[in-house]
# Entry
Amino acid sequence: MTAPKPFAATDQLSASRNRLVLAVYTAAIFVSALLLFSVQPLFTKMVLPRLGGSPAVWSVAMVFFQSLLLGGYSYAHFLMQIRNRVIPVAVHLTLLVVALLMLPLSIANGFGEPPTSGYALWLLALFAVSIGLPFFALAANNPLLQAWFVRTGHPAGPDPYFLYASSNIGSFLALLSYPVLLEPVFTLRTQNLIWTGGYGLLILLIAGCGALLVRSPAPAVSDAQTEETDAPSPPWILRTRWILLAAVPSGLLIAVTAHISTDVAAAPLLWVLPLSLYLLTWVLVFQSRPLLPHKWVLLAQPLAIAGVVILLAVGGEQNLLLTLGGHQLCFFVIAMACHGELARTRPAAKYLTGFYVALSFGGMAGGLFAGLIAPYVFSWIAEYPILLALAALCRPAHGDERLPRWSRWYWPFLAVLAATLIGFSYSTGKPSWWLEDHRAWVAGAVGVLAALLALAFNATRWKIFATVVVALVLIRLYPADEGRVETVRSFFGVHKIVVTPHGQYHVLMHGTTIHGAERFLNNDGTPVTGRPEPITYYHRDGGIGQAIAAIRERKGAPLRVAVIGVGSGTLACASEAGETWKFFEIDQTMVDTARDPKYFTYIQNCQPDLKPVIGDARLTFAKEPDGVYDLIIVDAYSSDAIPVHLATEEAMKIYQDKLAPQGAVVMHVSNRHLELASVIVGIADANDLKSWVYSEDSGRDDEYIFATSVVVSAREEADVGKLASSDQWAETEANENQRVWTDDYSNVLGAVWRRLRDGEQ
# Structure
């Protein structure tokens, strides 16, 4: 028998070591990404009740996370300038252990109640103090571990970007599993404990990575090859382009998330869908063999941009699948094109950490623009179309024209088109009512035209950019809303005041949801005089109107009423002489709009001395004295979204405590996308309250009198008066198979599923 050759045994040991290095580093990067991106929806959901469940909380959170990613990547870049292998390992492990002492996650002391203004800065401070250090430590792991991997001498070290795909797979799975698995199954406390355990496991894995790095054989051939490479430093023009390519998808991520979550719910389900797609693009483009060839994505990008133009022009928010699917599919293609360009132009491994710093700086810049700057600069959601136009500039500088013979006619054609259509808005050839009655058609035609032009002139990025700009300007000139539109924007969203054709109605909208309306002209064109009539969801024959009348009749004396949510001020005119009505509202701009007689006159005519309590109702209403109110009306909405924290067992306990001995709680649950009646019945039952459900279509939408869904809850049947015997109200038992929503648990996905299921029946 011959003994094995020494170098063969050495090769076998080396191969075994390389497999171990790859396994440990991949596992550490995967777990780090899993924790990094699961903490975002987890902690933001903990913070959400402090600010009324506003979708803007997630936008500000994204700005914070992106900013801290830049900090973590810069820290990793600085640490890897140290030639010694032991020092970076020791420093980073010390940071991780110190951060572990701040767990489990919790909101820091001193942030119990938000201020009356400056919400964004307050939120950033809350995030920084509460989870800043653990998130910073996690943010540094991806570039740091990749740089360590290069120095281990592993054969794959010269091109470690495949580990970035592994990182984003972990991020993608974390986000996807949160609304589907973690949120519906585990309470927030349990999720927090699981996350803390994962953080401890990660420290052990990174310690293993550090040990493998320190014990790497010397001389480290890969180190020498990497550090002494002749690869030139990336020029500043390329670094600037990296920042743009990272900034546009990052800003679009926030804009798309705000757009869709405004009309459904401010909940992790709708936050993680766009973010999951965003991360999936990183996974796909940094694979050694991308599943989608980059040139295919570049061909599809103009169509995706045109698709968003069409969606913005004609709306479509009445259809949940169109809202969620259309915008996100187009966003996915646009992000793939941008990130594909980043992957195509990535530098040698020697410049890896600097590359990641540029990416994170771009991500932070895009997030700052969409999440913090735009809401204060624009009175409407201008950041979405602006970023959409900039996406065209993310294409490669040079491209082959599909139809070269048309190219020379492009600029003259575009100039004539723009002048014709813009001039048409001031034309006297058509009466003004024609434009007002056909705005959606004009806007839709502009979107289709943008798609055709993008296809026909798919040559240079500047031509596509110019086409998109013209299309978006025309959409702004010809909005889909019929009538004159004014917008008011605050931290809590954009409110539109639509004056219908001929000025008959003034309509308050948030997103695509009507929050109230007032009739200013009668059908014969004469002005409405006297006390305004409550309409929309609040007319006297609807669920809320019937509930108010029944409680008033049952008491036989003036009511004491608390209303959560001002809207257009409609309910101010549901009061009667001698009654006390107190309103609670989180958004001061909403109060200012309802008070302004050029918009609405409910408050001016019915309760001119109205002074709403400003702040989140869970905090402000809890300070009210117990046993006072005969009726509590909860009507707080952000577009069609619901502030989840106002629909939990603990919230209902607060309402119950404030009720007079025979009082009742009215919850307005009309919603296009979520079935909420069973949720309210469940939280009422958990507080030993009985519930009656009203859901009926008025059939008078043309008069701005809408179908409503309302739940009334009270201690005894006698407390709701004649509602208990009405055929329109059904006493409803809690579903034993449906888990009760609490401050620690909610399941928006289940509410969406029930609405879809009920719609098919």
Summary: The chain has a mean pLDDT of 78. The first helix runs from residue 6 to 47. The chain has 25 helices and twelve strands. Residues 51 and 616 are 6 Å apart (CA to CA).
